[in-house]
Amino acid sequence: MYQVPRGTRDFTPDEMQKRRYVEENMKTTFTSFGYGEIQTPTFENLELFTAKSGDSIVEEIYDFSDKGGRKLALRPELTAPVIRFYVEKLQMEPKPLKLFYFGNCFRYDRPQKGRYREFQQAGCEIIGADTPEAYAELIALAYNILKNVGLKNITLNIGNLNIMNFMFTKIGVSKDCKKELLPLIDKSQFEEVYTVLCDGGVNKEKADLFIDIVQTSNINKIKDFIKKDKSAVEDLSNLEKILHLLKNSLKINNYQIKMSIVRGLDYYKGLVFEIDAPILGAEKQLCGGGAYDLVSLFGGRDTPTAGFAIGFDRTILALDAEQFSFPLPKTDVYIIPVNSEMIEKSIEIAQQLRKEGVITEFDLLRRGVGKSLKYANSKNSEKAIIIGPQELEKDSVTLRDMKTGDQQLIKIAEILSKIKNH
Ligand code: AMP
């Protein structure tokens, strides 16, 4: 017996129906904000990812050499491929350039619920705009996508890495100490943060204040801390503008300021945000995004970039957990020939109905009417058409309502109008 590789999944027709529903819905929201869909290859040169995230990323991804000895990697995310695409071919496009994508990603993660080795991301990048309104719209897009697919309970957290960096500098944290602190802050392990700060020579008072500010959702406290320091005042004022637009114009009220979002990545700068579905528990993060610098690293002309990635699989897990009722796969009409002489006519009718957009199946196994009806039920069929010799002589068939069991004799010429009227 062969099994799927660890951390990967097969999807049944019912599951695929859900996935396509969610994808279509997300696509509609992306396009409503003027984003255009792109696609990039499933594998890229390994260097693309090590240039972005450092050599240690190799431990976390699927890398391999092809027969020509090229070092390649299955993409662990899509931001680097999209920016590679931009630098290679799209730099001359009018700005802002707004791109969205769906794609499978591969990570050598430890599999668990909501964490897979192959998973899907839905994401976007906006290239060439760094106004507060661009960022407010970006956050609203991510939020609206998750709301529009039908999620009821999501939380939005917004931070700013430049302000965080300013805070590190202000209390005198060294570069090495910062490296140690970022993953702890990311996981909200504040007792450990305190210890590392004190061990790194920061006095207790400052360490306490730092931890207080990192945990606060009160912008005035952050303002107080920054005072009139030039290096952070502009970031703070932009953050305030973004929050103002979200609340007043984009009508998104339920966000929190969260300075402890560090996204663990060096190339992020300025705005960062995350959206969670608390119902998912440990693996609750649905979306991560923000502003980042990659274009110049990949050899392009410097231009601002920002984006986000939504975990597609987790979005579906969250919808399931909230008992969202997905549209089910269904058959409109199931045609049952009562004997083998009726097969040709059955196929002919089936084909005419399909031409009119009616989802039509007919019994391919020459089963009796009873068994065929049972199968039609299992396919959520709304109607059945039973074709028998006596009825056919009168150019008629039996139309059965699968829900009520009511049957009526109708003319073949009337089938379409009867079905469509329903
Ligand atoms: P990241 O690129 O790490 O910011 O991830 C963006 C989103 O992708 C996360 O918020 C998750 O929802 C989702 N995600 C990341 N890793 C996995 C994984 N191994 N399995 C499923 N979803 C994932």
CATH architectural group of the largest domain: 2-Layer Sandwich
Tally of alpha and pi helices: 15
Radius of gyration, CA atoms, in whole angstroms: 28 Å
Question: Helix/strand/pairing class, anyone?
Answer: alpha+beta
| Shape descriptor | elongated
Q: How would you describe what is shown here?
A:
This protein has 422 residues and is of the alpha+beta class. The protein folds into two domains: 13-321, BirA Bifunctional Protein, domain 2, CATH 3.30.930.10; 333-421, Rossmann fold. Helices cover 41% and strands 21% of the residues. It contains 15 helices and 16 strands. It has helices at 13-32, 46-53, 79-90, 132-148, 161-170, 175-186, 190-199, 204-215, 219-226, 230-248, 312-321, 343-355, 369-378, 389-393, 415-421; strands spanning 36-37, 43-45, 63-65, 71-74, 97-106, 118-127, 155-160, 255-257, 268-276, 285-292, 305-311, 333-337, 360-362, 383-387, 396-401, 407-411. The strands form three sheets. Strands 1-5-6-11-10-9-7-8 form an eight-stranded mixed sheet, sandwiched between helices. A five-stranded mixed sheet has the order 13-12-14-15-16, with helices on both faces. Strands 2-4-3 form a three-stranded antiparallel sheet. Strand 3 (63-65) and strand 4 form a beta hairpin. Helix 6 packs antiparallel against helix 7 (190-199), helix 7 packs antiparallel against helix 8 and helix 9 runs antiparallel to helix 10 (230-248). The two termini are 47 Å apart. Bound molecules: adenosine monophosphate. The site of adenosine monophosphate has 16 residues, from strand 6, strand 10, strand 11 and helix 11.
